[in-house]
Design goal:
7-stranded antiparallel sheet, alpha/beta, single chain, 14 strands
């Protein structure tokens, strides 16, 4: 199989700089061993005005068959039908992608000590591959490379036999890409998309392939319109790995949308859940409002017999049973403690847990033993990654939603976005909200005066402040609201946790407003 990379230049910026970027000297032909053959790199032309680097990959078909048997190891399905007569030595596939990462390793990372500025900036490129297997045809090639900044994407179908045009075209295309891109970006795109177009890999897809996909897809995959197809095909349709990759890509998208570091979002949990002094289970507070039960105090609990976390869950379950809910959203599900409690009650037929933290969802899946659940039980629960400050059509149509120890982890200016996403867009029949009562903090013996219960809390409200907020939310979105204490109700400072139960009224007040006003509010949210 064959690939060429060409660029043009000027006397100030000669095209032969391509040799520095690829770390391969234009005056020499070099040979490299790969796991299934030999790669040769040479330069058919190298001048100030134009430079072309070529890679010829020679595959040993016998070694390919001997090294891997079965689906995902012997190459494309063609190899299973005719092991020693197939397209693997000629068609660009995962074999070529692996050779690219081996031969042009530094270029793929964008590293060039000699010319760092050239490596960091776009340059005019023309990439040609004579035979690319495209399961999806030229249309798929356009769909994959078109959104990536190329000025021209040409995928010309290769006829089965030029002497017999009536036979039609093969599944191979001649690929030509032209445009101004960073060389590293172009190589990373090929590294991922060649196996995707072929829809096969010559080696076993292990969990570390997720990391490879995300590294090579940095900067473009998270926003690609064909993200799901790319992820699924690259990971050989292994659903568990695909789901993991999609969750991490969503985390990248959220971080970019909020202009913050991924670590600031996915800081939710420790690997080993702990229990705080007040009996609440630690480790699920996150940025952007997508949190679950967090450490709610630094002091000692008034009772060691029943933890505050257990009392809170029981109060939530009681509210949901009173509402007659059978489908429940756990918004900010964290490590899955509430989901686990909901699953124990058969009246809750479907539970949908949402959290922004991949680590929290991983721990929740382990806690719930999702991989060992019966099929019937597994149909009752869904865990997914998402941000509660964005509207999500998947959240619509549920009987009830729970925001347990969530709102205090948001910066106050972001509360309206969460409010609209939950009460305005998803609009479940019942919404249960719990949050710490800051007045009760004086009862925690070891909590320093003036401190909140958890380092990630952006605020903690008094009972009056919580009721003011809840009342306004209910008025704006057509809900009635009642309040219930959680934990011992101190006659002076109230309960440690305060809870509001919102019940949707028959009339949505938004329908009585003008369309223009509603659209303005939705846009602002």
């Amino acid at each position: 199989m064959f690939l060429t990379i060409s660029t043009t230049g000027t006397p100030e910026r000669p095209a032969t700089d391509l040799g520095f970027l690829l770390h391969k000297h234009p005056d020499r032909a070099q040979t490299f061993s790969t796991s299934h053959g030999t790669a040769q790199v040479f330069y058919p032309e190298a001048s100030t005005e134009r430079c072309t680097a070529a890679m010829l990959l020679e595959i040993d078909p016998v070694a390919l068959v001997r090294r891997g048997k079965g689906k995902g190891r012997g190459g494309a399905p063609d190899a299973a039908l005719a092991q020693y007569v197939n397209d693997r030595p000629y068609a660009a596939s995962s074999l070529l992608a692996v050779a690219l990462s081996t031969v042009f390793k530094s270029a793929l990372r964008g590293v060039c000590t000699a010319l760092p500025e050239r490596a960091a900036n776009p340059l005019p490129l023309r990439i040609e591959i004579p035979a690319v297997p495209a399961r999806g045809g030229a249309e798929l090639v356009q769909a994959l490379f078109g959104p990536l900044g190329w000025a021209s994407v040409r995928a010309e179908p290769v006829p089965l036999d030029e002497r017999f045009p009536q036979w039609g075209d093969s599944r191979y295309v001649q690929l030509v890409l032209e445009g101004e891109l960073r060389l590293a970006d172009a190589l990373r795109q090929l590294y991922i998309l060649l196996p995707v177009l072929d829809d096969a890999k010559h080696y076993w897809v292990a969990p570390d392939e997720v990391d490879k996909l995300l590294r090579a897809g940095e900067g473009w995959l998270a926003e690609h319109p064909e993200q799901q197809l790319i992820t699924s095909r690259y990971l050989a349709r292994r659903w568990g790995l695909t789901r993991q990759a999609m969750a991490r890509l969503e985390l990248v998208r959220l971080a970019e949308a909020d202009d913050i570091d991924i670590e600031a979002i996915d800081n939710a949990v420790e690997e080993t859940p702990a229990e705080d002094a007040d009996g609440t289970e630690a480790g699920d507070a996150t940025e952007a409002g997508d949190v679950g039960e967090a450490r709610d105090a630094a002091g000692a609990a008034p009772s060691k017999e029943v933890s505050l976390a257990s009392r809170r869950r029981e109060a939530i379950l009681t509210a949901l049973r009173d509402a007659g809910a059978s489908s429940v959203l756990d918004l900010g599900c964290g490590q899955g403690q509430l989901v686990q409690a909901l699953l124990k009650d058969a009246r809750f037929r479907h539970i949908f847990g949402v959290d922004v933290s991949v680590r929290a969802l991983t721990i929740a899946a382990r806690r719930l033993k999702l991989d060992r659940m019966s099929e019937r039980q597994a149909e009752r629960v869904t865990l997914t990654q998402g941000a509660l400050t964005y509207t999500d059509k998947r959240l619509k149509g549920y009987d009830a939603a729970v925001l347990s120890e969530v709102i205090e982890h948001l910066d106050p200016p972001r509360l309206p976005a969460l409010e609209y996403a939950v009460f305005g867009s998803a609009r479940p029949g019942t919404v249960v909200v719990t949050t710490p009562n800051v007045e009760y903090n004086v009862r925690w013996e070891t909590l320093p005066a003036g401190h909140v219960r958890h380092g990630d809390h952006r605020f903690e409200w008094t009972r009056a402040e919580f009721r003011d907020w809840a009342g306004e939310v209910a008025r704006r979105h057509g809900y009635d609201v009642t309040y219930r204490p959680v934990g011992p109700d101190d006659p002076e400072v109230g309960p440690p946790t305060q809870m509001a139960v919102f019940t949707a009224t028959a009339t949505d007040p938004r329908t009585t407003r003008t369309t223009q006003t509603t659209r303005k509010e939705e846009k602002a949210a």
